Amino acid sequence: MSENKKQKQIILTGDRPTGRLHVGHYVGSLRRRVELQNSGNYDEIYIMIADAQALTDNAENPDKVRENVTQVALDYLSVGLDPAKSTLFIQSQIPELCELSFYYMNLVTVSRLQRNPTVKAEIQQRNFEASIPVGFFTYPISQTADITAFQATVVPVGEDQMPMLEQAKEIVHKFNTVYGETLTDPKIMLPENKYCMRLPGTDGKAKMSKSLGNCIYLSDTEEEVNKKIKTMFTDPLHLKVEDPGHLEGNTVFIYLEAFANDDHFAEFWPDYKNLDELKEHYTRGGLGDVKVKKFLGKVLQSELAPIRERRAQWEKDIDGVYEILKKGSEVAEAKAAETLAAVKKAMKIDYFG
Ligand code: TRP
């Protein structure tokens, strides 16, 4: 980078297509991505459906991954990611990523990979202790290829991806030290508030997961959303309306922290100016959970209805969705090829000019 030329601002992020995206993905990442996309502050934005990474622990479920590529693409388009502003693409269609991964593997030790806390936790969750697929074990390296192939300066992701970014930065530093300044050092961008960082499931459990059946999906109908809110975990000590309510671990309030703004109060519940006033009444006592849940329902509905409508439109045009992914993958591949060429040159394996 020359002194007077401003460094390009480039975003790269993505999701594994192992299920439809839910409101946790929305407040943790998708909502912010759309804001960043529309801010005009970024020169290039790459949003990747990480199907190859999904296959590292779903090798025996190709149908599941394939089906969810479509679902995640629909989720992307319905939250407002715009192919005119963001390049939406499919990871497996960019072979340069595999090549980069192969060279980066030389710069990482097995013990370094074993220390990765996210991978450690995932190995436990999947009962992989005795038989970790090599591809799964090395996915932090392939994720570094994803990030560096696009020379990303900013990677907006959830907290659980922090170890991946640390790994990426280490590889970048190592590569640049050994072979000369070639790769861009990426910065992580975390969600704006702690409630968005890790939205709990509707049952109050720390993580939303398909197997626990505690997710509200972006593609849920209005009825499904209302039903899930009705049974949402609140405060087990708040038995009578007069009882003082507790906010700690109260899922309904955590969701309000993540979703509700002052305009929602003005529109749906003008008895209160903002969430602080509502919390004050709730903790004082005299406010029933049903009322708070009704409000949350209206807030969520107002956020999700436009998403649902856009989804319904795109669902009628799956060919159009794949056309977008195909074009996006072509653009993405051209960019990755530039980086790969620079990498090979730096590594002195560019034999034929
Ligand atoms: N690991 C991310 C997830 O679990 C997906 C992903 C793959 C990703 N490559 C990436 C995210 C690069 C950010 C940057 O959903």
Question: How would you describe this protein?
Answer:
It is a single chain. The protein is mainly alpha-helical. The protein has two domains: 3-199 and 318-346, Rossmann fold (3-Layer(aba) Sandwich), CATH 3.40.50; 222-311, Orthogonal Bundle (Tyrosyl-Transfer RNA Synthetase), CATH 1.10.240.10. The protein has 16 helices and five strands. It has a three-stranded parallel β-sheet. Strands 4-5 form a two-stranded parallel sheet. The longest helix has 29 residues, at 318-346. The structure holds tryptophan.
Summarize this entry quickly.
The protein is mainly alpha-helical and 353 residues long. It is 54% helix and 6% strand. It contains 16 helices and five strands.
Which tags fit this structure?
mainly alpha, 16 helices, three-stranded parallel beta sheet, 353 residues, binds tryptophan, Tyrosyl-Transfer RNA Synthetase, Rossmann fold, 2 domains, elongated
List the helices and strands and how they pair.
Elements: E1 10-15, H1 23-39, E2 44-49, H2 51-55, H3 62-79, E3 87-90, H4 96-104, H5 110-114, H6 117-125, H7 134-137, H8 139-149, E4 154-156, H9 162-179, E5 187-189, H10 194-197, H11 222-230, H12 251-259, H13 262-268, H14 275-284, H15 289-315, H16 318-346
Parallel strand pairs: 1-2, 2-3, 4-5
Helix pairs in contact: 3-15, 3-16, 4-8, 4-16, 8-9, 11-15, 12-15
Largest sheet composition: 3 strands, parallel
Order of secondary-structure elements: EHEHHEHHHHHEHEHHHHHHH
The helix tally amounts to: 16
The overall average pLDDT, rounded, is: 94
What is the beta-strand fraction? 5-15%
Number of strands: 5
Strand order of the largest sheet: 1-2-3
Q: How helical, in percent, are the residues?
A: 40-55%
Judging by the overall fold, what is the CATH architecture of the largest domain? 3-Layer(aba) Sandwich
